[in-house]
Amino acid sequence: MKLITRNTDYALRAICYISIHQRIVSVAELVRVLGVPQPFMRKILQKLNQQKILQSFKGSNGGFKLKISPHKISIIKIMRIFQGRIGINGCFLKKDICPNRGKCVLRKKIQSIEDNVIRQLTQINIAALV
Amino acid sequence: MKLITRNTDYALRAICYISIHQRIVSVAELVRVLGVPQPFMRKILQKLNQQKILQSFKGSNGGFKLKISPHKISIIKIMRIFQGRIGINGCFLKKDICPNRGKCVLRKKIQSIEDNVIRQLTQINIAALV
DNA sequence: GGTTAATGATACCACAATAGTATCATTTGT
DNA sequence: ACAAATGATACTATTGTGGTATCATTAACC
């Protein structure tokens, strides 16, 4: 089990690199620096462009630069882009078995852990990492 | 993304039920009460038997009962049985790219969150749930 | 002692998420 | 015009999860 996937990990490191250099960075450069497969990196950056985390520039000398402040890019934001909703447990029992979610001790305990994790992942942003 | 899978969830609820009733409980009964597929439940209980969380009794009137105290059964223990090692991120970069793990800020931050989660999951045991 | 009700062991299948790859179209600097 | 870059899209491979199916073994009960 992993909370953070490769997608997210590569994305975070790419954003960090771009954030440090404060200029347009090409996929080729990121691939050289981070050592991840080129087509995969491209796909990741394209998604970050679509989600308006990065801004892309086509053509020769093209590449990507940050579109928003590194302070505004939290880890959870990137995780949600690549991993969808972050949750610990959706309560797998059928509704008629566990009719009252409010009384389920397991669910409550787990929910509080989840809240903690999300709060922490929300606090960490790119500016804090570079 | 989910931190807790169905496997683990069903296992926890089955253990809770057995813990409350303090007697030998058959798969058939658990299936009736929890409403999960019988062969799947069997597989889960067999694993808990192998891991010495439960003790099985074969033959007519057979079933499962707790083998260890509910205080000693933490959520993390069950998660590890069904989901393997619990980690947030194994650091996906190749070793030569990220030679000094000690200096990686991302890794450090994530590690501290992971430690938190594991600490909390370790504290919650079956006795606290029932 | 045979029947029946239970688990043990094991192999198999289905689906979804993750981790990529491949290809062609489009844009832009020189 | 050409080369170097991204955009869009479709495809493939691997793995983890969530099961199912089957036969063997054990033990209570009549």
Explain what this protein looks like in three dimensions.
The structure is a homodimer of 130-residue chains. With 130 residues, the first copy, chain A, is mainly alpha-helical. The first copy, chain A, has a domain at 6-87: Orthogonal Bundle (Arc Repressor Mutant, subunit A). Helices cover 53% and strands 6% of the residues of chain A. Chain A has helices at 6-21, 27-34, 38-50, 75-83, 105-123, 126-129, and strands spanning 54-57, 63-66. The first copy, chain A, has a two-stranded antiparallel ribbon. In chain A, helix 1 crosses helix 3 (38-50), helix 1 packs across helix 4 (75-83) and helix 2 packs across helix 3 (38-50). The interface between A and B is large, with 45 and 45 residues. The first copy, chain A, binds a DNA duplex (30 and 30 nucleotides) through helix 3.
Counting DSSP H or I runs of 4 or more residues, the number of helices of chain A is 6
State the helicity of chain A in percent bands.
40-55%
**Kindly state the mean pLDDT of chain A as a whole number?**
88
Low-pLDDT segments of chain A: none
Instruction: Give the CATH superfamily of the domain at 6-87 in chain A.
Output: Winged helix-like DNA-binding domain superfamily/Winged helix DNA-binding domain
> How is the main sheet of chain A built?
2 strands, antiparallel
Based on secondary structure, the structural category of chain A is mainly alpha
Strand content of chain A: 5-15%
Give the N-to-C terminal Cα separation of chain A: 27 Å
Rounded radius of gyration of chain A (Å): 18 Å
CATH class of the domain at 6-87 in chain A: Mainly Alpha
Query: Which architecture of the domain at 6-87 in chain A does the CATH hierarchy give at level 2?
Result: Orthogonal Bundle
Oligomer: homodimer
